[in-house]
Specification:
With 203 residues, the protein is α+β, with helices and mostly antiparallel strands. The protein is 51% helix and 9% strand. The structure holds glutathione.
C-alpha cells in the first residue's frame, strides 16, 4: 500500500500551489495540511523545515521541503512514463533552467511584487515589477514559438512557473502585453484536474 502523502502549505502560496497542482495532475491522493504563517516558527513545523518555509511534503518517512525539489521527487517517484521530467540531456537541462528561473526571476519578480503590493511586505516594488517584465518578455518569445516552456509537451517547467505568473497582476504586473504568456496560462489551466491559482483579492 502506498504511504499517505501530506502537503503542508496555504492556498495563497504559489510555492504550495505548484505542488498541489502536480499532485492533482499525477492523480495522487493527498491530505492538505493547512499551515498558516503563525505556525512556521513552531517547534513542530521547524522540525519539518528548519528554514521555516512552506511547502513541505511528507510521503511515508520522507519529509521534503522546497517546492521544486518536491516536484522533482514526485516526478521521479510517481511518473512512470518520465514525461514530466525528461531523462535526455537537453530535455532535463531545459526543465532545470526553468526550475531555476522559478526560484530566481519569478521569486524575485512577480512573487515579490505581489507580497509587497498585496500583503504590505517591505521591499522595492518597482524593482520587482521590472524583473517581472524582463522575464515576461523572454517568456513571450519562447511561447510565441512553442506551446510549452522546456520541451514540446507540458513538463515540470510549466508547473513550477505557472502560479506566480497567473497571479502577477496582483503585484501590479500587467499581462495584457503578453498574449502568448496568457495563452500558455490558459493551456496549463485546461489540463485535467488543474485548479487555477486562487486570487488573493477575492479571498
Ligand atoms: N525555495 C522555497 C521557497 C518557499 C517560500 O519562500 N515560501 C514562502 C511562502 S510562499 C515562505 O514560506 N516564506 C517564509 C516567510 O515569509 O517567512 C520553495 O520553493 O519552496
Amino acid at each position: 500500500m502506498t504511504a499517505k502523502i501530506r502537503l503542508h502549505g496555504v492556498p495563497l502560496s504559489g510555492h504550495t500551489h505548484k505542488v498541489e497542482l502536480f499532485l492533482r495532475l499525477l492523480g495522487l491522493e493527498f491530505e492538505y495540511v493547512n499551515a498558516p504563517r503563525e505556525t512556521w516558527s513552531s517547534e513542530a513545523f521547524t522540525r519539518l523545515n528548519p528554514l521555516r518555509q512552506i511547502p513541505v511534503l511528507e510521503d511515508g518517512d520522507l519529509v521534503l521541503a522546497d517546492s521544486n525539489a518536491i516536484l522533482v521527487y514526485l516526478a521521479k517517484r510517481y511518473d512512470a512514463e518520465g514525461g514530466w521530467l525528461p531523462a535526455d540531456a537537453v530535455g532535463a537541462a531545459q526543465v532545470q533552467r526553468w526550475l531555476s528561473i522559478s526560484a530566481g526571476e519569478i521569486r524575485f519578480g512577480p512573487a515579490t511584487a505581489r507580497v509587497i503590493k498585496l500583503m504590505g511586505r517591505p521591499g522595492d516594488l518597482e524593482a520587482a515589477q521590472a524583473i517581472a517584465r524582463t522575464l515576461l518578455g523572454v517568456m513571450e518569445q519562447r511561447l510565441t514559438a512553442a506551446d510549452w516552456l522546456a520541451t514540446d509537451r507540458i513538463t515540470l517547467a510549466d508547473i513550477a512557473c505557472y502560479p506566480y505568473l497567473a497571479c502577477a497582476p496582483e503585484g501590479g504586473v500587467d499581462l495584457s502585453p503578453y498574449p502568448a504568456v496568457r495563452a500558455w496560462l490558459a493551456r496549463v489551466e485546461a489540463q485535467p484536474g488543474v485548479k487555477p491559482m486562487p486570487s488573493a483579492v477575492a479571498a
